Each structure stands twice: as C-alpha cells, then as structure tokens.
UniProtKB/TrEMBL annotation, chain A:
<dbReference type="GO" id="GO:0046872">
    <property type="term" value="F:metal ion binding"/>
</dbReference>
<protein>
    <submittedName>
        <fullName>Succinate dehydrogenase iron-sulfur protein</fullName>
        <ecNumber>1.3.5.1</ecNumber>
    </submittedName>
</protein>
<dbReference type="GO" id="GO:0051539">
    <property type="term" value="F:4 iron, 4 sulfur cluster binding"/>
</dbReference>
<dbReference type="InterPro" id="IPR009051">
    <property type="entry name" value="Helical_ferredxn"/>
</dbReference>
<dbReference type="Pfam" id="PF13183">
    <property type="entry name" value="Fer4_8"/>
</dbReference>
<keyword id="KW-0479">Metal-binding</keyword>
<dbReference type="Pfam" id="PF13085">
    <property type="entry name" value="Fer2_3"/>
</dbReference>
<dbReference type="GO" id="GO:0009055">
    <property type="term" value="F:electron transfer activity"/>
</dbReference>
<keyword id="KW-0004">4Fe-4S</keyword>
From TrEMBL, chain B:
<feature type="transmembrane region" description="Helical">
    <location>
        <begin position="220"/>
        <end position="240"/>
    </location>
</feature>
<keyword id="KW-0812">Transmembrane</keyword>
<keyword id="KW-0472">Membrane</keyword>
<feature type="transmembrane region" description="Helical">
    <location>
        <begin position="158"/>
        <end position="177"/>
    </location>
</feature>
<protein>
    <submittedName>
        <fullName>Putative succinate dehydrogenase [membrane anchor subunit] (Succinic dehydrogenase)</fullName>
    </submittedName>
</protein>
<feature type="transmembrane region" description="Helical">
    <location>
        <begin position="62"/>
        <end position="80"/>
    </location>
</feature>
<feature type="transmembrane region" description="Helical">
    <location>
        <begin position="18"/>
        <end position="42"/>
    </location>
</feature>
<feature type="transmembrane region" description="Helical">
    <location>
        <begin position="132"/>
        <end position="152"/>
    </location>
</feature>
<keyword id="KW-1133">Transmembrane helix</keyword>
Length: 290, 250
C-alpha cells in the first residue's frame, strides 16, 4: 500500500505538487505568493488577499486549496480531476478564463494574481458559478439522428474532422469569454461557441441525417451574433480551433442555405443535393432524402 | 522554432490589450489612405514591362481623366478583403471594438450597449457574399499572374530583375491568401459530410486537407500579401519617378 502511494507520488507531475503533505519538501525557503480572491455571491462581494508559501511548480488550484485548508475553510471552489480533463475548475485569472489546475503560479511572474468566478454565468459562491444554462442549450441542440443501426462502418477519411470537436472537455471557458454572452448577454438567443463545436461535429458526421442550419440561423443557435473575433479559440484548453474549424464552416453552411443566390436557384430548379451522397433529394427533404 | 515563437509570444502577451487593436487600426488606415491617394491622383501605374497590381487588368474608363480607371478593378479585391473572415475579425476588433480584445477589462470598453449589438445579423450580414468576391478574385489573379510572367520578360526575352522578383513574391502571396480562403475550403470539401459516398470524394478530401493547411495561415497571408501589394506599387512608383533604377540580376 505504502509502496503504491509512493509510486503515485512519484508519478504526479510537479505541476500537481501536493501542498497538503509535502509543502516543506518543495517549499521555497521564505518565498511566498499573494493571491486576491473574489469572496462573495450573486449579491456581490469583494477581493480578499491571501498570502501562501511558495511551492515549486504549484498551480493556482494548489494555492486555492492551500488557502482553503489553512486560512479560509469556507472558500468555495469547484474541481475534480486536477489534470485538465474534467473542465470543472474554470475560473478567471486576471480577467481571462483559465483552468485553475493548469495555470502555474510562476507564469504570473510576480504580477498580482486575481482570481474570480466565470462572469458570463450567475455566481453561486466565491469561485463557483452556475453553468446550468449551458445544459439548457445542450438540450435545445438537435441530437444525432440516423436511420442506420449502430455499430456503424465508417472510414477514417470521413471521420478525421470529427476528432477535434470531440476533444471538448466542457469547461465553458469559451462561453465565458465570448462577448456575445459576457458583454451582450444574449443567453436567450445565442448558443455560444461550445455548442457550435458540438453542432459542427453533428453536422459533419457521415451518418447523421439531420439538418441544423435553421436551428443555427433562425433558432436557438443564433450564429449570426458571432462576429468571429476568436476569443473563444484563444482560451480553449483543448486547443480546438473553434472559430476556424467549427464556427466558420457552420457559417458557410448557413450562407449556402440563406445567402447564396446561385445555390438558391439551383435548389429551385434541380432540388436539394445531399451532402452525404451528392444525390438530389427533392426540394425540402432532409439530408438523406426524407 | 517552437522556442522562438514562444520567446516572441511571451512579451507580446504581456503588452497592454489596446496595443493590438490600435496597431491594426493604424496599418489598415494607412493602407486605405495610400490606396485612395494612388487611385485618385495617379492615373497609371505602368513602367516598362511592369504593371502595378492596383491597375491590373487595365480598363478603358469613361470617367474624367483625373479619376483613375483603377477604381473599376479595385472594388473587387477590396470587397474580397472587406468580407474575408480574417479581416472581419481584425476590423470588428480594431475599428468597432466589438470586442477590442478578450480580457474582461478590454470587453468593458465595448462601446455598444447590450441591446444594440447585432453581430453579423444587420448590416454585416452582407459579409456572407464573400464567396462571390472570392470567385472574382481568382479571375483577377489570373491577370496578375500574367503580369508576373511579363515582368520576367524585360525587352522581350527572359531575365530576372529585382522588380520581377518583387512581382513573383507578391503574386505567390496573393495566391496563398486566396487559396487559404475559408469559403474556398468550404466549397472544395468542407460542405461534404461523407467523402466516401460522393463521386470524386477522395480528390475533394485531399484538396480540402491541403487547403486546410494553407487556411491555418490565412491571417499571416492576409497581412503579408497586403504589404507585398504595397511594396510592388511603391517600387513601380519609384521607378516611374526615376528615384531608383531596376536592378538586373540575370
Ligand atoms: S468567435 Fe464568435 S463565438 Fe467565439 S468568442 Fe468571438 S463572437 Fe463568441
Ligand atoms: S470548446 Fe474548448 S473552451 Fe469551449 S467548452 Fe470545449 S474545451 Fe472548453
Ligand atoms: S476567408 Fe479570408 S479570404 Fe475568404
């Protein structure tokens, strides 16, 4: 048992230095970090300054957990995997969304570190915001639909574009940084970058038979509000090129349907072509000829 | 290479948020003013076997002589760039501050009120005709390619001059910019969901993958080709003014 624990400790990267047990080992003699953390709730709050002993390789979540353990037991923070996989610990450091478990304290090289909850969503307490709005949008998304029976036979060349959107860890930092939501509060009419990533996956899936351009343009998607200014791409911890590979391809599909007079004319004359098979599938049918 | 990019990136990231939008505003405004002056006050851009890309292809203009015929051509590349997905990002950020940058501090400076923001739903919905400008731009590119070939034929036979190399770099960057266009990538393969189901699917997939690689550098090509256009035109004007003589290399 002990051996196993020791092994695990060995495996843990320095980025995840265990501040509870090991701080003496890695602690840098006499050095400390200062963090200003938002304390409050939906009603309001203020920044409170905390000072903690510096530990080599420490991430901001380590610092916060240290504060929670030693200085402010009631400090609320959400986290799970501590390995940048679960997307739970999203918050804002110095006004930019970050995964707390991935942001090294040293990166801020002596600057102030100001930690706030994500501001595009209602604050519950301290660093925790209520992201449930995203699940509502998820429910509005037209689900994967097919007339074939799984398991599917699919070719690599048809699915290689689907790997990138699948990397999403649902941290919702792209939603947080998007000015359409954050500054213009279009939560009722705009699905946000995370769901454009989702819709791109669905739309480009070779077995899916649904059409989502109406949803994207006229419906809950509201893709016209996006002005492709790429803040979402800048913050995505999974490195998804949200704007270039999800949003713009979807905007182009919307343009095919709504803003291309030649395409419109062809549809009138010849009928709609299926992007799956290239076959003419009638004037108004869904993509597989329904 | 990666460490070089990282070394450049770090200090850039440390700059205050307004440096980016202000720089873009300055460069684009500068380019706009230069083009206006060139087009309004100079009716020609031809020197020996060089034709400035601003004036290609030459057209017969029914307009008064002081107004350059270039305006009959220029609307096309200008429209192409104005509706380009990359330039859209650049000017929404730089000119409209919508948003000027991504940090919360920068976003607080967005001038439009919550209700007034329409994104690309009102006026900017016109940007959706981008693909038509793209088609036109490829026609123009053919002319520019012919001009480049001519630039390599001083006195009728093959020769390399500084001017011809400038033309070559310029036309290569213009092709790279146009081929990396998002709309082209969509039309070639982005709109197909199942390559193995459509005729010619494999060729389309390959072309799409290749265009996607170019597309990743679209912003870079957008800037480089803007500068190369400028440099080509300035070089010809310097030749016209007799300020420099063309260097013959071969
Ligand atoms: S590119 Fe569009 S979705 Fe992404 S942050 Fe900007 S406005 Fe929002
Ligand atoms: S797309 Fe990227 S930033 Fe957005 S939720 Fe997914 S992982 Fe997070
Ligand atoms: S997207 Fe930039 S040229 Fe088409």
């Amino acid at each position: 048992m002990e051996e196993q624990e020791a092994q695990q400790k060995d495996m843990a990267s320095k980025a995840h230095a265990d501040v509870h047990a090991d701080e003496e080992d890695a602690a840098r003699e006499g050095e400390s970090y200062k963090l200003r953390i938002f304390r409050g709730d939906a009603e309001g709050g203020r920044e409170v300054e905390y000072e903690i002993p510096a530990v080599e390789g420490m991430v901001v979540l380590d610092a916060i957990l240290y504060i929670q353990a030693h200085q402010a037991g009631d400090l609320a923070v959400r986290w799970n995997c501590k390995a940048a996989h679960c997307g739970s610990c999203s918050a804002e450091i110095n006004g930019k969304p970050k995964l707390l478990c991935k942001a090294r304290v040293e990166e801020y090289g002596g600057q102030d570190i100001r930690v706030h909850p994500m501001r595009a969503f209602p604050v519950i307490k301290d660093l925790v915001s209520d992201v449930s709005w995203n699940y509502e949008v998820a429910r509005s998304t037209i689900p994967f639909t097919t007339d074939e029976q799984a398991p599917f036979e699919m070719y690599e060349e048809d699915v290689e574009r689907l790997y990138e959107p699948k990397k999403c860890i649902e941290c919702f930092m792209c939603q947080d940084v998007c000015h359409v939501l954050r500054t213009h509060q279009k939560h009722e009419e705009f699905a946000g970058p995370r769901f454009f990533v989702r819709n791109q996956w669905l739309e480009m899936h070779p077995k899916d038979t649904e059409r989502r351009v109406e949803y994207l343009k006229e419906g809950r998607g509201g893709i016209g509000y996006c002005n492709i200014t790429k803040c979402c791409t800048e913050v995505c911890p999974a490195g998804i090129h949200i704007t270039d590979n999800s949003i713009i391809p979807l905007k182009e599909r919307v343009a095919d349907e709504y803003y291309d007079p030649a395409k419109w004319l062809m549809r009138k004359i010849r009928g709609r072509r299926s992007p799956k098979t290239g076959q003419i599938i009638g004037r108004n049918g869904n993509r597989n000829g329904g | 290479m990666a460490s070089i990019t990282a070394a450049i990136k770090k200090p850039i990231q440390r700059l205050p948020w307004w440096v980016g939008p202000i720089t873009v505003t300055a460069v684009l405004t500068g380019f706009g003013i230069y083009t206006m002056v060139a087009v309004l006050f100079f009716d020609r851009g031809e020197y020996a076997n060089y034709l400035s890309p601003f004036y290609s292809p030459p057209v017969n203009s029914p307009l008064p002589a002081w107004l350059s015929p270039a305006i009959f051509v220029l609307w096309l590349p200008l429209g192409f760039r104005a509706t380009c997905y990359y330039y859209r990002k650049a000017y929404y950020r730089a000119f409209f501050w919508d948003p000027p940058a991504c940090s919360s501090k920068a976003q607080q400076r967005e001038p439009r009120s919550t209700e007034n923001y329409r994104g690309e739903r009102n006026l900017f919905v016109w940007n959706n005709i981008h693909r038509y400008f793209m088609y036109g731009s490829f026609v123009l590119l053919i002319f520019l390619t012919i001009d480049t070939v001519r630039a390599f034929l001083p006195e009728g036979s093959f020769g390399i001059t500084l001017g011809s190399l400038i033309f070559l770099v310029n036309v290569t960057l213009l092709w790279s910019y146009s081929l990396s266009c998002h709309s082209l990538r969509h039309i070639v393969g982005g709109r197909v969901d199942c390559y193995s189901c459509v005729t010619g699917g494999n060729a389309r997939r390959k072309a799409y993958s290749w265009l996607s690689v170019l597309n990743q550098n679209h912003a870079l090509f957008a800037w480089l080709s803007l500068f190369s256009l400028l440099i080509t035109d300035i070089y010809i004007r310097l030749l016209l003014a007799g300020a420099v003589t063309d260097l013959r290399i071969l």
